[in-house]
Amino acid sequence: MSDIWEGLRAAAWLLISFDADLWEITLRSLRVTLTALLIACVIAMPLGALLVLRRFWARRFVIALLNSLMGLPPVVVGLIVYLMLSRSGPFGVLNLLFTPTAMVIAQVIIITPLIASITHQALRELWSEYHDLLISLNTSIFQRVRTLLWDGRRTLLTAALAGFGRAIGEVGAIMVVGGNIDNATRVLTTAIALETGKGDFAMALGLGMVLIGLAVTVNLAIHWLTGTERAGRW
Amino acid sequence: MVTSILPLRLDRAFVKRRGKMLAGPVDLDLTGDGVTILMGPNGAGKTTLLRMMHGIERLSGGTVTWAADEETARAAQSFVFQTPVIMRRSVLENLMYPLRLTGVAKAAARKRAEDACAMIGLAGQEGQRATRLSGGEKQKLALARALIRDPQVLFLDEPCANLDGASTREIETLLQAAAGRGTGIIMSTHSIGQAKRLARDMLFMNRGRLIEHSPADVFFTSATTPEARAFLNGDILE
Questions:
Q1: Does A231 contact B at CB distance below 8 Å?
Q2: How far is B48 from chain A (nearest CA, A)?
Q3: Is the CB of residue A137 less than 8 Å away from at least one CB of chain B?
Q4: Mean pLDDT, chain B, as a whole number?
Q5: What is the CATH number of the domain that holds A74?
Q6: pLDDT at position A41, please?
Q7: Of A105, B7, B111, B154, which residue is most buried, by most CB within 10 angstroms?
Q8: Chain B residues within 8 A (CB-CB) of chain A?
Q9: pLDDT reading at B25 higher than 50
Q10: How close A139 comes to chain B (CA, Å)?
Q11: pLDDT tens readout for residues B165-192
Q12: Which runs of consecutive H residues, i.e. helices, occur in chain B?
């Protein structure tokens, strides 16, 4: 029990004193996750909309695939990305292994199916509402995608937040492809794993508190910015 | 001069779903200007027929042809649904939407949308969330949005089905103004009173078949089919 109290006290101190290591690791975590989130949204949201709008032969298969990819074990994704990026792999020449870029790639692969699947479910409802009107107005497929994404932006926020939550808390894949290198690829989750292993519970707990605080702050900030809870808005 | 998309011709057009004939086969020539009212009991196929003419219902057979090519024809018509489809946007953005689709510049679209807003008595509520409007206001908004591209032909599927007298009168006034500007209106209704007030031509359907097509005065005084006469007498058609 005393371990935990000691740890919490030391953690609080690290936070209050703006410990340089902690600060750097936190910023790197945010940068990697937000970059991955942005890329994943750009891929997943139009894909989710297209799956609603287009009735092509492999549609059911793609949806089933996305749903099962949502449960993809991150560490396996890490392994595959590792093999792709390693010196002997097909993309070895790019020298990306053990860089933040490799971590972004792994995270994009992990969260894209999740975001696409939530987008698909949210927009399916909106499409059934808009279907007759948009057909009647003779809209192109591009205009339909844009309309659905824009008018469904509130629900898409949920999709993005789910993606953020999964990416920021992810450890298996980025440990494998990033390597948890100090000052280079160490992020909150990998640092927690390391400090716990070393027995430095103060640092581990401090990092953990930052991680939780970060997730809560980002969620609140987005909700506040877009006014989800305000009346009279979408 | 804009090419007229009328007359509209239906040739043995029908829609069948899961073995059940929903409407047709219908042969029909519509020259169009003025108000054409489509009547008939529930399930007669009125909605299906309107959707067939508008081109949003897949035909199972026959043809629907306009006097212009398909692209021109589609761009020159609009449709007001029985339950208005209101977009999750502001009143003004709902009205601007069809214009922005066809590439009208934002400022010009905004100006026309504001005019349309005033026309339906919603001036001052441009920024309001459209999904929060009352039923009558929603239907007026849908009508104004359908008229904003100045269509040659406007379809309406029982636009006043759930409205009270005052809202119905406002809609009818808007429709008569549009008809006065040369828009051909094809509309279904259950109200014989409304048909008498608006119609120049009458269509009457029963069990998927179009059984009467005559000028309104002829229809109301001397309908030829027993079904139409029974309907006008207030009998219930099976």
A1: no
A2: 13
A3: yes
A4: 87
A5: 1.10.3720.10
A6: 96
A7: B154
A8: 54, 56, 74-75, 78-79, 81, 85, 87-89, 97-98, 101, 129, 132
A9: yes
A10: 7
A11: 888 888 899 999 888 888 889 999 988 8
A12: 46-54, 70-75, 91-101, 106-119, 135-147, 165-180, 192-198, 216-222, 226-232
**R_g of chain A computed on alpha carbons:** 21
User: Across the interface, do A132 and B129 touch by the CB < 8 Å criterion?
Assistant: no
The whole domain housing A6 covers 2-224
Contacts of A147 in chain B (CB under 8 A): 87, 97
Considering the domain boundaries, does residue A232 fall inside one? no
Give me the CATH topology for the region B8-85+151-232: Rossmann fold (3.40.50)
pLDDT given at position A233: 47
Q: Is ipTM beyond 0.90?
A: no
B185/B157 Cα distance (integer angstroms): 11
Q: Supply φ then ψ for residue B141, to 5 degrees.
A: -60, -45
SS (H, E, C) B83-119: CCCCCCCEHHHHHHHHHHHCCCCHHHHHHHHHHHHHH
pLDDT of residue B1: 46
pLDDT band at B2 (very low <50, low <70, confident <90, very high): low
What is the C-alpha to C-alpha distance for residues A124 and A115, in angstroms, rounded to an integer? 14
Best of A133, A155, A230 to substitute, by most chain B Cβ atoms within 10 angstroms, is A133
Number of CB pairs, chain A paired with chain B, less than 8 A apart? 37
Q: What is the mean pLDDT of residues B121-147?
A: 88
Contact at CB, A132 and B79, closer than 8 angstroms: yes
| Total domains, chain A | 1
Mutate one of A136, A151, A157 to test the B interface: name it (highest B CB count within 10 A): A136
Could you give the count of Cα atoms lying within 13 Å of A203 in the half-sphere of its Cβ? 21
Determine, yes or no, domain membership for A233. no
Question: Which residue out of B54, B85, B125 would a mutagenesis test of the A interface target, given it has the greatest number of A Cβ atoms within 10 Å?
Answer: B85
Residue B111: C-alpha distances to residues B98, B103, B104, B118, B189 (Å)? 14, 14, 11, 11, 33
Peptide bond just before B25 cis, omega within 30 deg:
yes
